[in-house]
Amino acid sequence: MGRGNPVMHLGQRTVRVTATPESVGFSNERLGRIRTWMQGYIDEGKLPGAITMISRHGEIVFLECLGKSDLESDLEIQPDTIFRIYSMTKPMVSVGLMTLCEAGLLKLDDPLSDYLPMFRNMEVYRSGQDELVRTEPARSSISIRHLLTHTSGFCYGVFDDTPLASLYKSRQVEFYPDDGPLETVVSRLAELPLLFHPGSRWNYGVSTDVLGHVIEIVSGQSLDVFLTKQVLEPLGMSDTGFTLPRHKLGRFSALYEATTENPMRLADSRKESVYSNEVTTLSGGAGLLSTALDYFQFTEMIRRGGKGPDEPLLRPETVADMVRNHLPGDLASMGQGSFNEISYDGIGFGLGFSVVIDSSLVDYACAAGEVAWGGLASTAFWIDPANDLTVSFFTQLVPSDLYPIRWDLRNLVYQALTDRSDL
């Protein structure tokens, strides 16, 4: 662990490296290269600070905290630093949705309009731009499965260069923290055409935000209350939520943005952030704050087939279904050649996670069956069942595709693994 401290106490919880590298099939010397790599990004002024956490067989073998969580206040990054995890919210909300499936309250192939009637009789984009678009009737209904797999026809405005991007921006359907109640934002979204016919393509978008409102309708609870009761509390994720309590402000990270003029411009300060004031939109796609330790509880649950610290959160069969590919091929064949710095040849998509289906086609070190995702501020995680391995990386820099962080870290982790089980 960074600064030579193998144990850190966080309230009643203790974070510690629980195994020596050699005891779980890692080279200690080669793991040290990750520390050097992290420090290089910090010394070069590319990242404010970072945490890398690696576990194998459930044992934490590497926990390195380097740099600052807030450059202006000179605060060191710590295992209990609270980060904006953005799209790493999506797998957690997907898990929440699957608890409702297990309870028999909805099915994956149910039409979305069964729960949100405003999505009945949707139109699909054909041509045109901005307000002057031509459409045609959707050939099929959006299903819950389409939302989980990002094959619904929804997109993003802020990331996409599609003909609908400007409409998403102008109609305020990006699900930003202050866009309004979920019901209001979802209703605005239903007035816009889909980018493509449901099920015909893969496109990253606001699908999981819509799922968040489905959860509210089915459960009768607001998304934050539901997630707390069904996912966060059972997993002991006490530092994860949509808003930041005032007493935790000292642990909140600042957010930085790389621009042509400044590689680390302050984009969102701790004290003035909307997360530390009033969040009106509970974004199921990008709204959660969390810590490295909290997110480890989540990845461990997935690695253990749905088993939480005390009792199962999901059935093993449900988790197995979530982490298999639900597309007819890989993402490249479904219209998504690359995303961030990563090519999507050989990578499919499950119910809330990307899934490696052919590691020979992937351009970074990985194993078949790996599930993963990342966030806008350059956070990332992956779970490798073949090698019983979980890895997470936390920092706060946008955009997330500026540096090959995910690519580098995967290669560094696997070069340190001395007994790969998938070879």
Can I get a quick summary?
The chain is built from 10 helices and 19 strands.
Task: State mean pLDDT (0 to 100 scale).
Answer: 93
Which oligomerization state do the chains in this entry correspond to?
single chain
Number of strands: 19
C-alpha geometry: globular
Low-confidence regions: 1-12
Characterize the largest beta sheet: strand count, sense, and whether it forms a barrel: 8 strands, antiparallel
Instruction: State the helix count.
Output: 10
Strand content: 15-25%
Give the termini separation: 29 Å
Give the strand order, joined by hyphens, for the main sheet: 5-4-3-18-17-16-15-14
N to C succession of SSEs:
EEHEEEEHEEHHHHHEEEHHEEEEEEEEH
Rg: 21 Å
Structural class: alpha+beta
Helix content: 25-40%
Record keyword descriptors for this entry.
423 residues, alpha+beta, eight-stranded antiparallel β-sheet, three-stranded mixed β-sheet, 19% strand, disordered N terminus
Describe the structure.
- By secondary structure, the chain is α+β, with helices and mostly antiparallel strands.
- It is built from ten helices and 19 strands.
- The strands form six sheets. Strands 5-4-3-18-17-16-15-14 form an eight-stranded antiparallel sheet.
- Helix 1 packs antiparallel against helix 10, helix 2 packs parallel to helix 6 (207-219) and helix 2 crosses helix 7.
- The longest helix has 16 residues, at 28-43.
- It is globular, with a radius of gyration of 21 Å.
- Residues 1-12 have low confidence and may be disordered.
Question: What's the SSE blueprint?
Answer:
Blueprint: E1 7-10, E2 13-16, H1 28-43, E3 49-56, E4 59-70, E5 75-76, E6 83-84, H2 89-102, E7 123-129, E8 132-137, H3 144-149, H4 165-170, H5 182-190, H6 207-219, H7 223-235, E9 255-257, E10 265-268, E11 289-290, H8 292-303, H9 316-322, E12 338-339, E13 342-343, E14 347-349, E15 354-356, E16 371-374, E17 380-384, E18 389-394, E19 397-398, H10 405-415
Parallel strand pairs: 9-19
Antiparallel strand pairs: 1-2, 3-4, 3-18, 4-5, 6-11, 7-8, 9-10, 12-13, 14-15, 15-16, 16-17, 17-18
Helix pairs in contact: 1-10, 2-6, 2-7
